Amino acid sequence: xxxxxxxxxxxxxxxxxxxxxxxxxxxxxxxxxxxxxxxxxxxxxxxxxxxxxxxxxxxxxxxxxxxxxxxxxxxxxxxxxxxxxxxxxxxxxxxxxxxxxxxxxxxxxxxxxxxxxxxxxxxxxxxxxxxxxx
Length: 134
What we know:
- With about 130 residues, the chain is of the alpha+beta class.
- It has a single domain (about 10-130), classed as Thiol Ester Dehydrase, Chain A (Roll).
- Helices cover about 20% and strands about 40% of the residues.
- It is built from two helices and five strands.
- A hairpin with a 2-residue loop joins strand 4 and strand 5 (about 120-130).
- The longest helix is centred in the middle third of the chain and has 15 residues, at about 50-65.
- The two termini are about 25 Å apart.
- The mean pLDDT is about 95.
- It comes from Bosea lathyri.
- This is Acyl dehydratase.
């Protein structure tokens, strides 16, 4: 993973809107697909991965890029923008960035942008809005 140097624990003051917090690769390999299939069953279209698996990959990118996190954060909302299809064996490049932050009613709101790409093809993008604990 590449990106900003991680603090001991991420606090609200550490986030700078517009900054990239991490870049990492997520392999859509046989092991990941087997874990998904064990829980949810076989995909209806074997040459195209389920959108839920892509959302899980997006959340994995967020969790891996921004750690350690303080206890007590609240995942308030999430938006998703699906692009092209992902296929078994693809290696996705993920980027996690701080889009915005604001203090509102004594709550620390942080908006993170997460994008998944396969080469030049957008696979999934979205935002995660979090009430940050510290």
